[in-house]
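User: Hey, my collaborator sent me this sequence without any context and asked if I could get a structure. I don't really work with proteins. Can you help?
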Amino acid sequence: MVEPVFNAESVPVLALGYRFQFEPAQNCNVLLYPEGMIKLNGAAGEILQRISEKKQTVSELIAELKVAFNGADLDDDVYTFLEEAYNNDWIRPE
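Assistant: No problem. I've predicted the 3D structure and written it out in structure-token form, which is a compact way to encode the shape of the chain:
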């Protein structure tokens, strides 16, 4: 079994060359990189916005999301997204 890249104490950061922003023309959050742009769905935008704004552990990120979304159980979804974003080279552990 492959060991996950992120755990509760990991600090995810955007990978070099990537920038998060809201794109009015697309009416959504996007991840910009030298070769183009990735349109993000709402959940991805919420997670990457927090990663781009401040350095925090995954457990702090999840706690902040739970407050924002009325205590929803988001742990598994956040870890799944972080692994997918890492595999796509969007983020890395600090």
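In plain terms: The radius of gyration is 13 Å. You can pass these tokens on to your collaborator as they are.
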